[in-house]
Amino acid sequence: MSTISLRLPESLHKKARELAKKENISINQLVSSALAEKISALLTEEYIDKRAKRANKKRFKEALKKVPNAEPDEYDK
After folding, report:
1. How far is residue 57's CA from residue 30's CA, in Å, rounded to a whole number?
2. Farthest CA pair distance, the chain
3. For 77, which DSSP code?
4. Which of 35, 44, 53, 56 is at 20 to 30 A from 28, Cα to Cα?
C-alpha cells in the first residue's frame, strides 16, 4: 500500500467527506474507488482506440453479410 499527499479544494474535500459518510466508507476508500473507476475508463478508451485502428471496412462488410436478414424479436423492438 502506498501513501500520497493530496491537496484538494475545500469544497471538493467537503463533498468527499459527505459522500464517504453517506456510503459508510472512509474518504480513502472513496478516493481509491474513484481513481480506479477513472483509470478503468481511460484504459478502456485506449483499448477501443487501438482496436479501431485495426479496423478493416472490407472485413466488416463480409462479416455483416453472414448476419441473417430477420426482424428482431418483439422484446428487442
Report:
1. 43
2. 58
3. -
4. 44
What is the radius of gyration, based on Cα positions, of the chain? 22
Whole-number Å distance between alpha carbons of 71 and 77: 9
CA angle (41 as vertex; 39, 47 as ends), nearest 5? 100
Distance CA 46, CA 50 (A): 6
In the DSSP assignment, the letter for residue 19 is H
Give dist(CA 1, CA 17) in Å, integer: 22
Measure Cα distances from 68 to 15, 59, 60, 71 in Å: 52, 17, 15, 9
Spatial separation of the C-alpha atoms in residues 73 and 77, rounded to whole Å: 7
